[in-house]
Amino acid sequence: MRTVLAVVAALLLPTGCDRPEAPPAEAPTPVPVSPPAAPPGAPTVAAADGTLAFVNAAGVPTAALSCGSGELRVVVPGFRPIGSEDRLSIGTEGEAFALVADLAAPGPGVTASGAPDPDLLNRLARGEALFALYGQQSAGPLTAASPAGLQALISACRGRE
Q: Which neighbouring-strand residues pair with 71?
């Protein structure tokens, strides 16, 4: 019986000395991370109609502003329309400005419009970040995708103040 136990014990003992060492594992190759793609219907940097994209920290177009027909128009493609919510607020860290949401507007997201507020335009001209709030949905801080486009937008809106 001792012999059987000795043989079993010998088979169970690790034999690390006579095993070749496994080669060290190679470090994984880093995969470059790129910013997420713009969502469908996201605004372009500056469209021919004077629409200016505002981008998030990753550079993804998140909102678009334009001034025409005496109104400031805001489109946030990533927001989901809510039948009981008729106000989209935009602003900077220090001030909010309410716009009327157009729930019948075509396209993805939420569209809102209203008179361009001089204080909002001044804040954007100083380079303050833009925020948008609709129900419990929010976006921001957002910056203009083009400084020249921002100046053109502000000029167009001021011409209609």
A: 68
Q: Are strands 95-102 and 110-114 parallel, antiparallel or unpaired?
A: antiparallel
For residue 124, the tally of other CB atoms under 10 A from its CB is 24
Q: DSSP 3-state assignment of 67?
A: strand
* Reported confidence tier of residue 159, pLDDT bands at 50, 70, 90: confident
- Cβ(38)–Cβ(59) under 8 Å? no
In tens, the pLDDT along 77-90 reads 999 999 899 999 99
For residue 23, cis peptide bond before it (omega within 30 degrees of 0): no
Question: Could you tell me what percent of the chain has a pLDDT over 90?
Answer: 58
Q: Which two tokens stand for residue 12?
A: 């169970």
How many Å from the N-terminal Cα to the C-terminal Cα in the chain?
103
Residues 139, 142, 114, 124: is their CA dihedral positive or negative?
positive
The three-class DSSP label of residue 66 is: strand
Other residues' Cβ atoms within 10 Å of the Cβ of residue 67: 24
User: Residue 6's pLDDT band (boundaries 50, 70, 90)?
Assistant: very low
Q: Answer for the pair 51, 83: CB distance below 8 angstroms, yes or no.
A: no
Of all helices (H) and strands (E), which one includes residue 151? helix 147-158
